[in-house]
Amino acid sequence: EKAVNLKKDLAEMQEWMTQAEEEYLEKDFEYKSPEELENAVEEMKRAKEDVLQKEVRVKILKDNIKMLAAKVPSSGQDLATELNVVLENYQLLCNRIRGKCHTLEEVWSCWIELLQYLDLETAWLNNLEERVQMTENLPDKLDAVNDALESLESVLRHPADNRTQIRELGQTLIDGGILDDIISEKLEAFNARYEELSHLAVSRQIALEQQLQTMRETDHMLQVLQENLVELDRQMTSYLTDRVDAFQMPQEAQ
């Protein structure tokens, strides 16, 4: 009777493993939304815990069959053969579910990381847009134009590492057919805004550089003119002090 019960327990265990494999490993999952992906991750975590909890039952079966084999070798040998099959299948199921759980957790981590990089770069784009707007309607002063140019250039020196991460993470998920529609839409919107703002910012940078150069040249010309006027004033004052007749003065002084 004990052998019959153990044989029944082995059969039930094998049936449970078959059902677990069908439910957790053979279903075709489509992750078209973050909610679906998150739910799948949580389901696989529960599946891993469920499978690992069966380890106690498997050990009890193994111990009972060993005890029976010691008492009744003939019955125990047949059960030991069946036990080995169950143990092998159980270990395989554990490994496969662990693997799938790990894969889904990595995918979820990849998605979260992508969102974090997008948030960082979106904040940078917002800053860039603000700096570009600050270059409009500047006062016609050298310092104001120079400060606006330096401010814009400091933002444009932003490294490209984050955008590289966004591209690679997004492509990895899309290639796996995971959240591909959502990610493609997000990347398209981000890239379009990045290209538009970058082009506008570089155009404003060039315009400010040209404006600054013109203002510096004008400022230099005014400085030279001012120096000439000061010198001329000095000469005129000298002529007047010395009561020099106008017709005796150099042509430029007349």
From TrEMBL:
Record InterPro entries: Spectrin/alpha-actinin (IPR018159), Spectrin_repeat (IPR002017)
Does the keyword field hold DNA repair? no
Q: Does the UniProt entry include the keyword Phosphoprotein?
A: no
Keyword entries, A-Z:
Coiled coil
Q: Where do the TM regions start and end?
A: none
Residues annotated as coiled-coil are: 3-64, 208-242
Descriptive protein name? UTRO protein
Q: Which SUPFAM superfamilies match?
A: Spectrin repeat
Name the gene behind this protein: Utrn_1
Q: Which organism is it from?
A: Halcyon senegalensis
Query: What phylogenetic lineage does the species belong to?
Result: Eukaryota, Metazoa, Chordata, Craniata, Vertebrata
